[in-house]
Amino acid sequence: MIGETITIAVDFDGTIVEDKYPRIGKPIIFAFETLKKLQDKGHRLILWTYRKGPELEEAVQFCKDNGIVFYAVNNSFPEEEFNLSHSRKINADIFIDDRNVGGLMSWGEIYQELVGEKPISNKYTTKKKGWFSFLK
């Protein structure tokens, strides 16, 4: 995926914010920063959530207040109209959800996986020596 523009469907509760549904939880560390960086790289973000009605509007506004405006919300594209005769599956390349098999990766790991940039390492960090470090 590195170098390509992709469409990413992102869950809200438990993924962008702590799960406090129907209230809005605290933002999960680095979620908004990572989403902003992904948008800056040209990726399309779709909010893909169980929320509807006022709870959905509140979540969309919360994201907007934190600098994220989604390409689409609970749709594959902005102009899509809900139709009971069609599948509700969102057409996206990647899905980010706290209910993934194995759980949700950290937002730093998600960014590295999708963009391929490694974190800056601190060359001055020293490793702690264990009790049996003399055996190494």
From TrEMBL:
Asked whether the keyword Hydrolase is assigned, the reply is yes
Note the InterPro entries from the entry. Answer: HAD-like_sf, HAD_sf, Phage_SP01_Orf1
Q: Coiled-coil annotation: which residues?
A: none
Q: Which GO terms describe its molecular function?
A: hydrolase activity
UniProtKB keywords: Hydrolase
User: Which named protein is this?
Assistant: Hydrolase
Q: Which organism is it from?
A: Aequorivita xiaoshiensis
Organism classification: Bacteria, Pseudomonadati, Bacteroidota, Flavobacteriia, Flavobacteriales
